[in-house]
Design goal:
The longest helix is centred in the N-terminal third of the chain and has 22 residues, at 2-23. The protein is 68% helix and 0% strand. The chain is built from 7 helices and no strands.
Length: 167
């Protein structure tokens, strides 16, 4: 039995070595960034890799849904946590696409964000849900201002206070 296990171990070692050798042929680089011709080419690769504003907006959408779920459970701390991450994500997004900054700040970040955050902090369901609606409306207004009103036609913007939570 010992010899059988030893033989299997040796065979597996040889097989794994062959597979690893086949995965990285000699001379083929694994440095997609370091192998770029110069820093300018590296920065172009990074910019392409990091993409535009679509990825931050995808995260904002996921977190907005998480805010809704948290409020549905009366978990105001979690709602505030995701609300804070939404602000950070939008700011990181306009680092990549500075043209988005003016509307994001004017419509959401300069006033509405703090008002919504304050409402979540009250732990009052009525105020929190009213703030959620205010946030949703600000998002939708920003989409219109940025000439992408079609973004508003999705289930995410149908979210509202659950009927069981109405007082």
């Amino acid at each position: 039995m010992k010899y059988y296990l030893l033989a299997i171990s040796i065979a597996l070692s040889i097989f794994c070595s062959a597979v690893l050798a086949a995965e990285s042929p000699e001379g083929e680089s694994k440095g997609w960034l370091l192998d770029a011709e110069n820093d300018a080419a590296r920065f172009e690769l990074l910019q392409k890799y990091l993409r535009g504003f679509d990825q931050p907006m995808w995260e904002v959408g996921k977190r907005f849904r998480a805010v809704h779920d948290a409020l549905s459970r009366d978990n105001y701390e979690l709602a505030a946590y995701h609300w804070d991450k939404i602000r950070i994500t939008i700011k990181n997004g306009y680092l990549k696409r500075p043209a988005r900054r003016a509307d994001a700040e004017a419509i959401l970040l300069n006033t509405t964000w703090a008002e919504v955050n304050e409402a979540f902090g009250t732990r009052d369901a009525g105020k929190a849900w009213a703030a959620f609606d205010k946030a949703r409306n600000a998002c939708m207004a920003c989409h219109v201002a940025e000439s992408v009103p079609y973004m508003n036609n999705q289930h995410l913007f149908d979210l509202s206070r659950p009927s069981s939570k109405t007082k």
